Amino acid sequence: RPGLALCAGCGGRIQDPFLLRVSPDLEWHVACLKCAECGQPLDETCTCFLRDGKAYCKRDYSRLFGIKCAQCRAAFSSSDLVMRARDHVYHLECFRCAACGRQLLPGDQFCLRERDLLCRADHGPPPDSTAARGSRSP
């Protein structure tokens, strides 16, 4: 369809003998399909990700829009092992008690207060039965 398509990158008509179709409704001049963040040319040799009509290379898409560790704020790679606490995700190495620094392992009891993970020793045992009945303590 050269001559009929409009380039999603520059808006001009695509007269070239070749065009790049990224999704069913977005077509690009070969020279216009570049990462919106770093400018790397995106062609059939590298992965292309779309967000809000803009194209991104895999590295920038992951950095900008990927899930990030709740502790160190770095993105995850596909090979990273993760730990989850409610809607927070952590690198295995970052899943540590905020008070004592002990790494929390699968099966460990912990508490999540705001963004802070606390091991059982630092958040304490559940209230005892006297406190649950209404006894006051300082």
In short:
This protein has 138 residues and is an alpha+beta fold.
CATH architecture of the largest domain: Ribbon
Shape, per Cα inertia axes: rod-shaped
Q: What's the CATH H-level superfamily name of the largest domain?
A: Cysteine Rich Protein
Write the H/E string, N to C. Answer: EEEEHEEEEHH
| Structural class by helix and strand composition | alpha+beta
The name of the CATH topology of the largest domain is Cysteine Rich Protein
Q: What is the CA-atom radius of gyration, in angstroms?
A: 25 Å
- Strand arrangement within the widest β-sheet reads 1-2
What's the main sheet like? 2 strands, antiparallel
Number of helices: 3
Percent range for β-strand residues: 15-25%
Helix share bin: 10-25%
The mean pLDDT is 81
**CATH C-level label of the largest domain:** Mainly Beta
User: pLDDT under 50 segments (min length 5)?
Assistant: 129-138
Number of domains: 2
Span of the ends, CA to CA: 78 Å
GO biological process, one term: axonogenesis
Protein name: ISL2 protein
InterPro entries: ISL1/2-like (IPR047169), ISL1/2-like_LIM1 (IPR047244), Znf_LIM (IPR001781)
Subcellular location: Nucleus
Structure description:
- This is ISL2 protein.
- Its main location: nucleus.
- The chain folds into 2 domains: 47 residues, Cysteine Rich Protein; 58 residues, Cysteine Rich Protein (Ribbon).
- The protein is 12% helix and 22% strand.
- A hairpin with a 2-residue loop joins strand 3 and strand 4.
- The radius of gyration is 25 Å and the shape is rod-shaped.
